[in-house]
Amino acid sequence: MSLFAVTRATLAKDLRLEWRSKDAINSMLFFALLVVVVFSFSFDPNAEESRRIAGGLIWVAFLFAAVVALNQTWARELRNQVLDAYRVSPAPANSLFMAKALGNFVFVVVLEALMTPLFIMFYQLRALGPAWQLIPVAALGTWALVVNGTFFAAMSIRTRSREIMLPLLLFPFSIPALLAMVNATTAILTGELSARFWIVLLATYDVVFTIACLLLFESVLQAE
Amino acid sequence: MKRAFPILVFLVVAFLGYAAYQALVIAPTEQTMGNVQRIFYYHVPSAWTAFLLFSINFIASVTYLIRRNPSADAIALVSAEVGVVFCTVVLVTGPLWARPVWGIWWTWDVRLTSTLVLWLIYLSYLMLRRFSTSGQTPVLAAALAIFGALDVPLVYFSIWIFRTQHPQPVIGGGGSIDPRMMHVLLINWFAFLWLAALLCWSRYRLEYMRRELEETQALEALLEPRSSL
Question: Which end of chain B is more exposed for a tag (fewer CB within 10 A), N or C?
Fold first, then answer.
């Protein structure tokens, strides 16, 4: 089977599984909702303040919620030794990785689409800069989180206390991406600065780490 | 080897003592900062040593992924551990100096933040090594080390656009320094390099023995007759 066919088959399987169980999306949504409410209570910001802190709040909420989905990525494949079957199958390792990363991307984008209206409502947000730029920021930022997250989840699945291990690996490595997402969002919301530099940085981060993941995933999958 | 170790320890301690004497007594007092500036002779050599060790870690990790050579993995582990120790020294001496000179303990400046993130990345590397099951550790750790090396320039550039408050680097940064100070700085750096080499060497031997012991135990477990059967 070709790389593309395996990717499509695995992605379709994961999306169907999620559609039927809704495990990841439900837990992510509830988690992100809790973060929004708790932050809103603890800071109680007015419209001007919230414009300034919303970029940080939104992305921290999404980062925490994404970890919930990322942890389930490979854990699902441990049951019935599915991961071992993948290892011995002739299917290319990278297509498996791409399918998992794309699946997580879809989950997190759905989460963002559902949570953004809530954020706007609770924090009375209105962008003073070019709001359309939030779309590339969200797309590139989400990919930055899930591509490394999927890779690190494949690592943490091999460790003791794996649920704890993923954020310990993902957060330090995501600092430049997180900084770029937060600053780009804040720049767009306040309309004071241009977000272009941060968008370019996010794109660079995505390209560098997507290539690194694809080059190294096979050795990680086959590590014994 | 056992006999060489105490001699080396003695030599390194003597060298460190000489370097401390140079830093605390011989080096000229800085005009504006006074004696506070002398922490510089510990801060900067530690930073250079830490960065050198992290580079060694990266090279050893790449070597391991290509050659699958167990000693490359041991070198990667050792250099990361000792590097984190020196990086911690940098992060502790920095604020100690900054408080009297800048009036603040910490600022989110590019050098400070990058060093902190570097430290966090290598801590997560050591955490991964600690928590992963032994057979797979080397490959996972080597892959993570490569991710770290890719991340560091991105960290640096992402923080770069904020105004930088840290003094310019003394070499290649256009900053000027008294040649006598430079002399003391280099003496201290060599002393620190010797200390780092000694730490790495003894830690490497420890790691080597630990692995041999593990192998022997695994072999013994295989050879033991199963009494329960």
Answer: C
